[in-house]
Amino acid sequence: MTTDPQTWHPDPSKPAYVPPAGAVDAHCHVFGPADRFPYAPERKYTPVDAPKEMLFALRDHLGFSRNVIVQASCHGKDNAALVDALESEPERTRGVAVVRPDISDQELRQMDAAGVRGIRFNFVRRLVDPGPRDVFSTLARRVADLGWHVVVYFEAPDLEDLTAFLKALPVTVVIDHMGRPDIAAGVESPGFRAFRTLMEDDKFWVKVGCPERLTVAGPPYDDVAPFARTLVESCPDRVLWGTDWPHPNMKSHIPDDGLLVDRIPVIAPTEDLQRRLLVDNPQRLYWAR
């Protein structure tokens, strides 16, 4: 499999917005390096290496204090690169893993000790081949005993089919990328109204970053801002934000992470909302113990 084009900006701008002390980039990834952490044979893309050292340098450049690193599909269910990054900066990192159905309790406890606090279920078929839902339900019950949560990635047309399954999971559920709404349809569209109805249930949290993935108009992503701002203002204690660096599988353009940070006060227009989004909420979910 050939390597895809580079998706991370080689020289991101320094943002004008200064995040509050303790701010968390709550959705980012590490890729490789492949000679140490090989990519999964079943992967559907092959990224350019983007190891932990690059992620941590970007964090400091952007003015953040901590990272939540999410296992990316290119590494499959081998979480070695993720765990290595967590163990290298244990106070400043937490993780979300993707695990095998037959993972042992001992392995889960080892991941917990390393800083993993959740597992991810991916339902986006262009990226993965989703497994049976009963397997996901069993995994959710097992990680509930550890106090973990579940992160889910799906696209807006799949919401209706997934809703009953997600509501039945016995854990907090964090939804990636606002459930990938149809931006062209607008915030009053039936699809986004259905998502807002789902978010009325306190078990659901949502990540309001990644405008670069959702935009129709392109940078500076003004068309995405009303969706994120609506969620920040309607459920301020259950929103998270992240860069999504190194922007896996991006094909339209290479995002400038400095610009992404400068969009934060657009979607969270008060200092109180910014602090909840960047500090208080990730602290409760990932660093409470």
Automatic annotation (TrEMBL):
Signal peptide span: none
Protein's name according to its UniProt entry: Metal-dependent hydrolase of the TIM-barrel fold family
Pfam families membership: Amidohydro_2 (PF04909)
Keyword Hydrolase among UniProt keywords: yes
Domain of life the protein comes from: Bacteria
PANTHER family: BARREL METAL-DEPENDENT HYDROLASE, PUTATIVE (AFU_ORTHOLOGUE AFUA_1G16240)-RELATED (PTHR35563)
Recorded coiled-coil stretches: none
Residues covered by the Amidohydrolase-related domain: 24-286
Alphabetical UniProt keywords: Hydrolase
Any one GO molecular function term: hydrolase activity
